[in-house]
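Blinded run. Sample ID left blank on purpose so nobody reads anything into the name before looking at the predicted structure. Input follows.
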Amino acid sequence: MAFVDYYQALGITKSATDKDIKAAYRKMARKYHPDVNPNDKEAQQKFQNINEANEVLSDPAKRKKYDQHGKDWKHADQFQSAGQGRPDGGRSAGEPGYTGSFSDQNFSDFFSSMFGKSSGQSRQANFKGQDFNAELRLNLKDVYTTQKQTINVNGKNIRLTIPAGIENGQSIKIKGHGGAGINGGPNGDLFITFSIANDPEFRRMGNDLYKNIEIDLYTAVLGAEITVDTMSGKVKLPVKPETQNGTKVKLKGKGFPIYKNEIQFGDLYITYTVKIPANLSEKEKELFKELSNLRK
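Blinded prediction complete.
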């Protein structure tokens, strides 16, 4: 079989980084894998070439020899080490004094002799299967407590535990629930990213919650006890007399649970908005005028 260009086999250039090589190998191996192309001799040969190319280009030392000696890189170690015993003095093709000539022998046999493989067969490297990514949309109240959910990924039901306190945009890994491994390699993993919708009542910042509460003018002026909804239920909250608009109070431990430590909580911050009465009667207006005069 004619010489196969490793870079061409993986569809990359000589400037490819290690990351580029790895990505190209995975892409090409999946495309030409025998399981995907049963009874396709051409695909099987390409799959073998891809594995051989990756074997060399993913190894810095082997890649260096390949880049230096090109087509005849396979002879570098054997003949350079015995250079004095060769007519060409161990020189590579194109160098002064080079007199040797090497044929394009079977690529796999040549690869095997160079790297110690047996029976002229190249070793097909195993590698991890493709990682899968999924998005799970939840409401803020859904992640206030730990819960279990079943999700369907590629037709497969996966039951997972969602820890309380998980944050918007956070990802968790479900090991082994990605694509199947190649040649006995491990399965890929499933990465689930959580998209947590804003809550109309509570605003979350880290482990703390923020909430606006409207109180009437009379409660703000005279003070009273009000009932407030928190994530964990209703609580009684005293409003001090002469509370100003925009006043903030803290309810300790009434915020959001700490991720993977749900016995601890952040705080809940309440901001009061004082509602000015509207549509006053004549009598009410007179009373407010009297109050205004008293203040003067």
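Unblinding after everyone has recorded impressions. Residues 207-295 form a domain with the HSP40/DNAj peptide-binding domain fold (CATH 2.60.260.20).
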